[in-house]
Amino acid sequence: MEAPSRMDCDDRGDDQAEDSQRGFLGMFSSRNGKPRGDAAANLRTHEALLLLRNYEESGEGWFWSTDAKGRLTYITDSVAQLMGRMSGKLLGTPLVDLFLPVDGRGERQRTLPFLLTKQSKFDKLPLRSAFEGDDRWWAISGRPQFDASGKFTGYRGSGNDVTAQRRSAEDASRLALYDSLTGLANRFNISKKLDSTLAAFAQQQRSCAIMLLDLDRFKQVNDTLGHPAGDALLKQVAERLLKIVGDREMVSRLGGDEFQIILPDIEDRGKLGDMAADIIASLSQPYSVEGSRCIIGVSVGVAIAPFDGLSSDDLVRNADLALYAAKGNGRGRFSFYSSDLHQAAEQRRALEDDLRDALVRGEIELSYQPVVNSRSNMVTGVEALVRWTHRDRGMISPAVFIPIAEEANLIWPLGEWVLRKACEDAASWPGDMRVAVNVSPIQFANADLPKIVAQALATTGLAPDRLELEITESVFLGDTAATNQMFKALKDLGVRLALDDFGTGYSSLAYLQSAPFDKIKIDQSFVRDATIPGSRNGAIIAAIVALAEALEMETTAEGIESLDQLDLIRKLNVSHVQGYVYSKPVPHGELIEHAEAGSWTIKPAGPARQRNDRFSLFRQVGAIHDNHRYSVVIRNLSTTGAFIEGILEVPVGTQFVLDFGEGQLVTATVRRSTKHQQGIEFEQTMVSDGNGGLCTRHRVSPYLIAAAIQPTSALALPSFTTTNDWKAA
What we know:
Elements: H1 6-12, H2 15-25, E1 30-31, E2 34-35, H3 39-58, E3 62-66, E4 72-75, H4 77-82, H5 87-90, H6 111-118, E5 122-128, E6 137-146, E7 152-161, H7 163-177, H8 187-204, E8 208-216, H9 218-225, H10 227-245, E9 251-255, E10 258-264, H11 269-283, E11 287-289, E12 292-294, E13 297-305, H12 312-328, E14 334-336, H13 341-361, E15 364-373, E16 379-390, E17 394-396, H14 398-407, H15 411-427, E18 434-439, H16 441-444, H17 449-460, E19 467-472, H18 481-492, E20 496-502, H19 510-514, E21 519-522, H20 524-528, H21 537-550, E22 554-558, H22 563-571, E23 576-578, E24 586-587, H23 588-596, E25 619-625, E26 628-635, E27 641-645, E28 655-661, E29 664-674, E30 677-682, E31 687-688, E32 694-695, H24 702-708
Parallel strand pairs: 13-14, 16-18, 18-19, 19-20, 20-21, 21-22, 22-23
Antiparallel strand pairs: 1-2, 3-4, 3-7, 5-6, 6-7, 8-10, 8-13, 9-10, 11-12, 15-16, 15-23, 15-24, 16-17, 25-26, 25-28, 26-27, 27-30, 28-29, 29-30, 31-32
Helix pairs in contact: 9-10, 10-11, 12-13, 13-14, 15-17
C-alpha cells in the first residue's frame, strides 16, 4: 500500500507519516525524550515545522534521517521523487544505497560507509545518485544522534543539489586538459601524460614512441575558405586520427595544425612506419567542409624512447627534427629520428642560403627524361627535370631543394626560370617533340602564371601545343572558381595540360569532368608492385586507362624499370611510358644529338623482373663475427640484403652481424663471395625509413646495452676488437 503524502498527514494525522516526520522534526516537539506540554512551545514547534517544510518545497535543500542501522526514517518527498521513488517507498532503505560507490570521480565518496560506521559527523559530502537515468550530484551533511543515555539512535542530516556546480567544475577541468575544438587532449595534458609514461616505463625498461604531425597546405584552407572552415576541417582530422590510433587519451592537438600521438610499448619501426603511412593516406583523402571540397596532407616525425631520448623534452625535440626532415624531403612523408638529423637541419639552412644565389651562379640546369610511345618505342616528348650542382656539395636532389624553395618563397623565380629555359631548349629541337614542365601548386595559385607562360612562348617562338604543363591534384584545394579560371586561361593559350601523380590519394572523378586535361600520368607507386602476385594495382591501372580513353586523354605510366613491368603496361593499353627501362634523364646536349638524327627510338632494356628497391650508397658500417669487428663499406642496400666490400676471402655461408649504428643490428649470411666483395642476405628484412631509405625494424635497447657494459656513459654500442682472422681489404 502506498504511503500517504504530507497533505494526508496534515489532514488525517496518519500515524505512519507522523512517525516519519518525528525522525527528523521530532527534535522540535520533545526535549530529553519528554513531550512539550506548554502552548507556547507547541506554537514554536509548529512554526519551525512550517518553516522547514517551506524550505523543502523551495528546492533549496532537503532533509533526511536514519535509524541506528543506517536505514532511512525520513527523506524529503520531492527529492525521493527526483530519485524516481515516493518517500514512503524509500523508508527503510539503507542511506548508502541511494548513492553510487566511488567511480574515480571523487576520492571522498568512499568515506560514506566508513563515516556512518564510525558515527562521525560530515559536511557537504559530494555523492552521485545511484538511480538509473538520474545523473545527479548531491552534497549531504549529517550529525549522529544519541538518546539521554548516550546510545546512538541514528543520523539526521540535510542535502543540496550540486549537479550544476559539479558539471561546471568538470567543464572547467576539461577545458584545462582538453582542446575545446576537437575534444582531444591539449598540449598541457599530453605533456604531463608523456612525462608520467616515460618515468614509469624507464623503471620497467619499456619503450614508448611518439609521433608529431603537421598538416600540409592547411593554411590554404584558412585563407581560401575562412577560419570556420578550417576549424571544421580540424575536427574531421581529429576523427580520422582516432579511427587509426583508437585511444583518445593518447592523441592530442598541440595547437594550430599540429598534433601529437603517444604509442606505448611500440618500438617496431615496421609497425610504426605502417601506422604513419596509414595516417598520411587517411588524412590526405578529400574532405567536405561547408559544401566545399578540401585537400590537405600531413607530414609525420617519429621518435622512440629510450633509443631517441629518455626525457620527454629530448623525445619531443627529436620527433620535431624528424618531422622537419619529413617536410624537407617532399612532405606527405614520415621520418624516423636519427642522430644525423641535427647535422641535416644545419645543412638545410645552409642550402637555403646557397639556393638564393644558385641561379645567378649558373648552378641550376635542366635534364630531360624521354616519354616513349609504349607500342612503337618512339620518343614523343620529354619531361624537363631541374638539377642543382652545388659548387661544394655536388648534385643536390630535387627532393631536397624543391621543398626548400617552396618554404623560402623561391619556387616562383625558380619555376619561371625552368619554364623559360625548357621553352628555349625545345624551340631549338628539330621536329615536333613536346616538352613537359612541372607546375607547383604555389605557381598555379599565382594569377600571373598565364602571363608568364605566354611570355615564354612568345619569346622563344615555341608552338603552344608543344608545351605540356604537369599539374598535381593538390591544385583542386577548395575547388574554387579561381581554379577553373586558371585552367581556362592556360587552355586559351593552346598549351597541353597533364594531371600528374594520379591516384596518390586525392583522386576524384568529379574534377575530371571539368578540368581540361590532355593526359593522365599514373603514379609510379601503382606500377612498382603491379607485377607482384596478388597485387590489385594492375586492376587499378586498367581502370585509369579506361577512364582516360573514355575522356579522350592519353596516359603515361611513370617509373617503369623492368621488362615485366613494361609488358604489363602494354597489355593494359597505357599509351606512353617514362622510366629507366627506356632512359634516365639526359642533358640537353645528348638530347640534341638524338633529335638531330631524326626520329628517336629507344629499345627497352633492364632487368627481366622487378627487383626490390636497391639504394646505391657508400657507407661504412661494422661487420661483427665471432666477437671481432671489421669495418666494411655497404653498397646496393635492399630490404632483403646488401653488397659489401672490405674483407678478403670470406667463405660462403659465413654469418655476420652488421652494425648500422644507433642500436641497429642485422644478422646476415654471405651468399656470394668474390675476393673483397660479398653479397649478403638479411635474416630479417629491413623497412622503409619514410624518406627513401631503409632501417632495421628493431633496435637493441639502451637498457640492454647499459646492462652489458659499465659505466653507461652513453647510449652507444660497445666496440669490438679487429683481428686478422680475415684479411682487411
